[in-house]
Amino acid sequence: MRGWLWLPICVVLWSLGWSSSLLAADMKLRVQLIWGTDYDKPADNRKIKDLDAKLKEKIKNVKLFRWKNYFEVDREVLTVKNRESKLTSMSHKCVIELKHLGDTNLEVRLYGEGKLVQTVRQQLPPGEILLLAGDDKEKFNDGWIVAVSQE
Measured between alpha carbons, how far is residue 117 from residues 89, 110, 135 in Å? Predict the structure, then answer.
């Protein structure tokens, strides 16, 4: 008899619109730190990898990004639970905080050199990519991009 008690509770939660936020699945996210430059890849740095062709093509289609080469500096894959957040360090200067806001809604906070640089709230359905970018302070004409997508 007790099993029947869950049915009215689920119906009430669904009717209040809580079902999607309470029962939302975890988000498995891929976060990539990308370097945009007109220079070739340094031969002495094994950590820097060529960017996969599909992502490189998407980035090149954004008119704002005008570099000849794009390299992956770091990649993290994280699982963020519903209504929770996670921090990940992409470099000694770049930290990303990801917060799952329910459904496919995500908040991304970008920290540069310990300071909050940008906050973005956006839906991130599978197949879409969220891009955050800025100039490289140390290298004229270079830039960085943080790409967030569902894994």
Answer: 14, 6, 12
Return d(Cα 72, Cα 94) in angstroms, integer: 14
CA dihedral 131, 98, 128, 49 (to 10 degrees): 60
Angstrom distance (rounded) from CA 109 to CA 127: 21
What's the rounded Cα separation, in Å, for the pair 92 and 142? 18
Q: Is residue 70 within a helix (H) or strand (E), and if so which, with residue range? A: strand 69-80
Q: What digits encode the pLDDT tens for the residues 38-91?
A: 989 888 887 899 999 999 999 988 888 889 999 999 999 999 999 999 999 999
On whether the CB atoms of residues 105 and 122 are closer than 8 A, the answer is yes
